[in-house]
Design a protein that fits this description.
8% of the residues lie in helices and 41% in strands. The protein is built from 3 helices and 12 strands; from the N terminus they run ααβββββββββββαβ. The chain has helices spanning 3-10, 16-21, 202-205; strands spanning 29-38, 48-49, 53-56, 59-65, 70-74, 82-93, 108-113, 116-122, 154-157, 170-180, 186-193, 206-220.
Length: 221
């Protein structure tokens, strides 16, 4: 088989192309099972460390958080060799992306599984003008450069606190990552490293929340 032709075709079969392109063209997806899914609409925080809920724009979210870790613990996972983790998060108020002034940024967000960090990036909610722009890394890893709100699925929401009267200061993102994993349990943690040293109330200045999380166990051989 011509792997280049196969790959071009597989790319059209999102999201399965992500799974297959993780391995060679000879590998086969044998099992795909959703083992956890939560949009917090039923107020369920079972398995969460530092879990809490609040209502924002008529949605129930987990959060809000600043520089603090929240984690989901999963047990009794079926036999698998990959985990696919899909997260939907909201970025609130004055995130400054890749700013390197050491006062307002960089503003980083990251998550990992067990003891291994999976993805670290930055987000920017600031206006971007021709003469001044605080770029972000998402959808790439820190410290790649993209325009503010690149990859967002919703941008027309007010800030949570400092810019609660501004209609464009909360931004929603959804993304998936696939990692090698075979243990019967998993601890999925999320955190941020936000700089707001010039703010009298940093958590009002910058915060984040979780709108949804889905975990799938995959077996590819």
């Amino acid at each position: 088989m011509n792997c280049n032709i196969w790959y071009q075709g597989a790319r059209r079969l999102f999201p399965l192309f992500v799974i297959f392109s993780f391995f060679s063209c000879a590998d086969t997806l044998e099992m795909e099972q959703v083992v956890y899914s939560n949009d917090f609409s039923d107020l369920n925080l079972e398995g969460f460390e530092n879990g809490r809920l609040f209502v924002f724009e008529d949605d129930t979210l987990a959060g809000y958080y600043h520089n603090e870790e929240v984690a989901l613990n999963l047990k009794d996972l079926p036999s698998h060799n990959l985990l696919k983790i899909t997260l939907e998060i909201l970025i609130h108020d004055t995130w400054d992306g890749n700013s390197s002034d050491g006062v307002g940024g960089p503003d980083q967000w990251f998550f990992g599984v067990d003891s291994e960090e999976v993805f670290r990036t930055t987000f920017s909610n600031t206006p971007c003008e021709s003469t001044y722009c605080l770029y972000q890394s998402f959808p790439d890893t820190f410290s790649k450069t993209n325009r503010p709100k690149t990859g967002a699925i919703q941008t027309n929401m007010p800030g949570r606190c400092l810019f609660s009267s501004d209609p464009a200061y909360s931004t929603r993102y959804r993304f998936s990552k696939i990692i090698e994993h075979s243990n019967s349990s998993a601890r999925i943690y999320m955190n941020a490293e936000l700089l707001a040293t010039n703010s009298p109330d940093p958590i009002c200045d910058e915060s984040w929340s979780i709108a949804g999380i889905t975990v799938e166990a995959l077996t590819v051989n």
